[in-house]
């Protein structure tokens, strides 16, 4: 479904990704783990067209997408929940959700999807006319996730979806991810909660210094001594 | 001391009930009608001028709010609006009032062209680069107008006259300009709040990266915003041409005041542009009457500096469009 081959990217003259190779198959949950500064978020931003790779290739369903603009990538069905949320903080919850539906298909289903999101996230329904910037961190995270789902993605990219959330909200986020995956959505996620993520994931990649250093099934990674020592604090 | 209306009879509603809402209103009417005629006249002129100033600032604040670009070409866009209305009325014999939407259309196209040629290639560059580029556009268009139409002042042939309301003299040219300004502001507000495109523009103003993540074509929003901002300058310039003589340099004074208004009201804020326009209009009219020389303009600049020092985010701060 999604394939990265030798992707190099960075900010200005600083290269962060030094040739990333990875792939995501239809219907999978794939985890990307690694320490801070390894290049996980840069990888996500490059896939979504926020950053342009200096070298390498990204293909989605056989089509090259690395030279496409971010809106063209969303049109093809890839939507991201960014690490720092990037909500429209001066706009209401409803406006944020409506702005999530940009493709023709998503616009056609906008009303039903809006009702569905307000049902899936009752806190958002309670605050639907409130400005997004005035909500708690947990509520904002729910809104970011719901906004992405309004775009009816085929591939949902989650960058640290549980960062800064209280434990009960973390579980809620993971439950939602499991639910949407059960409905057939493919998920690529970066997450600090490595144990929970690898339990959920079909496969995982370990990233170090801008390169993929290891790949295996989620369960295998959970049992790998190096991963356990580096990321599970054991 | 002559009074316009000697008194307003108090309404029978007193004390509780509706009276507590109506009494202050009655008091206000009583106070205002007891003002000296000259004060009422100045208030009227301040309102008329402030409304037009607000309109001149609207496009500027919109472009800044959405794109983070300080558009110095805005002043000459106003002038192109003035000349467009003058040309269609003089050459084609079309009513200057119909010339205003034509001016808006001309400016929309000009705005998109200027954006694609000068701003878009450096949109990610530091802000001063765009500022200098748009300043260059100002000089180029200003010189072109001067070459084609000479620096001589022009005037739209329109004898609208004036009316008197309760002893207050209201020039109809300025009154129509105020009505157009208010109508345009309400229309833009409705467009931004009630249409899909308006929501996308507000979203892009709020968070550009967020707009990219949800799939908004930010490049398209940029040139549409620049075009709409220029079209608003066209409406403003066309409205000014209804009551004022103009030349290729008329836009400069309006541009400076528009910057003050945008800073005072809050960069990117529409309500701020309206309130800021009224404040600057009032200062100019009252200052012009009571203070010597160009002291009013000095006061406006002091207000500008004071705002930057005390409340740099402006009265309605933030990037709310």
UniProtKB/TrEMBL annotation, chain A:
Pfam families: ABC_tran. PROSITE patterns: ABC_TRANSPORTER_1, ABC_TRANSPORTER_2. GO terms for biological process: L-amino acid transport. GO terms for molecular function: ATP binding; ATP hydrolysis activity; branched-chain amino acid transmembrane transporter activity. Signal peptide: none annotated. Belongs to the ABC transporter superfamily. Keywords: Amino-acid transport, ATP-binding, Nucleotide-binding, Transport. It comes from Haloferax prahovense (strain DSM 18310 / JCM 13924 / TL6). Residues 2-234 form the ABC transporter domain. InterPro entries: AAA+_ATPase, ABC_transporter-like_ATP-bd, ABC_transporter-like_CS, BCAA_Transport_ATP-bd_LivF, P-loop_NTPase. This is Branched-chain amino acid ABC transporter ATP-binding protein.
From TrEMBL, chain B:
It is a multi-pass membrane protein. One of its GO terms (biological process) is amino acid transport. The keyword Transmembrane applies. One of its GO terms (cellular component) is plasma membrane. Keywords: Amino-acid transport, Cell membrane, Membrane, Transmembrane, Transmembrane helix, Transport. It holds the Pfam family BPD_transp_2. The chain crosses the membrane at residues 38-62, 69-88, 94-119, 131-149, 169-192, 221-243, 255-282, 289-310. One of its GO terms (molecular function) is transmembrane transporter activity. Its main location: membrane. It is found in: Cell membrane. Belongs to the binding-protein-dependent transport system permease family. LivHM subfamily. This is Branched-chain amino acid ABC transporter permease.
